[in-house]
Amino acid sequence: MKCIVCGKEGKYKICGECLIERKKVASIERFTLELCGKCNSIKIGRDWLKIGLDEAIKRLICEKLQVEPEFELHEIVISDKFAILKGILNGDFVEFSVPFSYGVHKISCPKCSMESGGYYEAIVQLRAGRRLLRNEEIEKAKEIVNKSILEQNGQKDFISKFEVLKNGIDFYLGSRKLGEKVSRRIAEELGGKIFESRKLHTRVDGRDAYRFTFLIRLPEYEDLDIVVKNDTLHVVKNARMGKGIELATGKYANILNAKVAVKKDSFGWGIITNLDESSAEVMTEKGVVLVQRPFGAEIGKEVFIFEYKNKIYVFPRDL
Ligand SMILES: [Zn+2]
Ligand SMILES: [Zn+2]
Questions:
Q1: 21 CA to middle of ligand 1, Å?
Q2: Residues β-bridged to residue 236
Q3: Is residue 121 classed as helix, strand or coil in its secondary structure?
Q4: Whose atoms come closest to the Cα of 12: which ligand?
Q5: CA of 83 to the centre of ligand 1 (A)
Q6: How far is the CA of 10 from the centre of ligand 1 (A)?
Q7: What is the CATH number of domain 267-319?
Q8: pLDDT tens per residue across span 260-307
Q9: What digits encode the pLDDT tens for the residues 100-113?
Q10: Cα(first)–Cα(last) distance of the chain, in Å?
């Protein structure tokens, strides 16, 4: 068969090269690009994506592109105002440009609207037993929150409020899942227990919607503090894991829920100058004292000294 226009031999009445001159085989409907003015994410279909403008335009063009059935599209190249289409038409390879235009609509994406509207599903509260939080603990918790938000990166994974209170700190988080993750990580990193509670907040589509509170209570004791458990004294070796050493025997013990007897800040310091089977003589800043022989005692060893229930105790610094 010969092309009716140019006479070229082929399978069609008109060859692709001639047809493309005469017929519009593709068009791109004008579209609107919805851009979040706050986080720069762009709406593609139902999703808001953090992608570049070029990529977004390309995807939106692909959505809006309409081609005649006889054209087999192989490739699209986007330039400023045209999309260059390459493919097969009536047996010929053809390449042609299709103009496109779009408007930009700046709005706030759902995530940014919720965030700025103060939306939250979970409160993570960090407290310590009978002491204030240390700065390192606060910084660590903040770091965990920021890291978890980046990792989860869901529609509701944001922080809408951070509060410093007299006795601790509160994080208001957009999703329950984020609250769960953050509290579990904080408890893992800093020690402590999580207490979870929930409150009916509202009803959404006939379903109860709750707000969740994750209270993390860090232990009162810190490393090197003296705690009392079952009437025996222990030095805290790992506050996070709840591990201590029994002073009298040097045995490792679980000290979860133990009470603080003496804080490390009030320790004195001395050197063992003499020893017998049951007692030790220790030179201190305030003179020589005679105490019960501690586990790990050696002459010349440096010790910490503290008083508990009117009795003086010492233990080696390197216990
Ligand atoms: Zn032709
Ligand atoms: Zn946004």
A1: 10
A2: 244
A3: coil
A4: 1
A5: 24
A6: 9
A7: 2.40.50
A8: 999 999 999 999 999 999 999 999 988 999 999 999 999 999 999 999
A9: 999 999 999 988 99
A10: 99
